[in-house]
Amino acid sequence: ISSSTPGPVILTVPLACFLSLGFISCQLMRFGSIGGNITLSPSSTVNFTEIIWKKGKDKVTEWSTNFNVTTYSLLEGRVHLDPKSGDLTISNLTSSDEGEYEMKSMDLTDSSKFHLTVLDPLRSPTLNCTVTNEIISVHCKMPQSYRRHRELLRYAWHCPFPQCEGSWELEAPVLNFTKEGDLSREVRCFVKNQESNRTSSIVLSTCVPSADNSRHRYALTAVPFAVIVCAGHSQIFLRSSLQPPSVRGP
């Protein structure tokens, strides 16, 4: 069973800084998903008279009080510049949109720099299990079709067993359960990135062959069946013992 986890995804905006030629350059790390939208904001309260946005060395869009907004072919038709705030919104993201963006303005002392990482839409993890002797091993993995930035994925387990206690991990550890435990319980695997999260679940009883899974149930139902049979024989015995003896003729 696969689903997305309800509720908002709480995101942080990390800052990456680099030392180059004696100067420290910092970039805001931003994340988006293919097909989604992203807004890069300089977070400035000045009244702009000029704005230039670049991706790498190429111009994306520019504006000044003397000229209307001009958008260049790099992202033409998919960007919107807000001259008041300086925000740059990119719609319908593609993998080629990933990279470094910079907003320059004569109204600011420093430029605003961003590094945009574009992620594949997050898929639900795949759960499978193996049985060795009396041990059930449950594995959680992302489909191989999810290729971009797998290093950003984090995994976590949820179930009513001590094995599921723990924090988010770079890889989902294999969980081991005994076949003698409560196999009716559900085990969930969560996976998340900076944009969203997904979960899949499995019931432990589906990991065990039906003959092994039902043997305890048969043992429990055998007792009342034996009682019913014994009770039936007791009633026959009592009925025959209470019946008056037949009278034979001379």
From TrEMBL:
Membrane-spanning intervals of the chain: 6-24
Domain Immunoglobulin: 27-119
One cellular component term from this protein's GO annotations in UniProt: membrane
GO molecular function: signaling receptor binding
Location of the protein in the cell: Membrane
Location, primary (coarse class): membrane
Keywords recorded for this protein, A-Z: Glycoprotein, Membrane, Signal, Transmembrane, Transmembrane helix
InterPro entries in UniProt: CD2/SLAM_rcpt, Ig-like_dom_sf, Ig-like_fold, Ig_sub
SUPFAM superfamilies xrefs: Immunoglobulin
Protein's recorded name: Immunoglobulin domain-containing protein
Record organism: Myotis lucifugus
Organism phylogeny: Eukaryota, Metazoa, Chordata, Craniata, Vertebrata
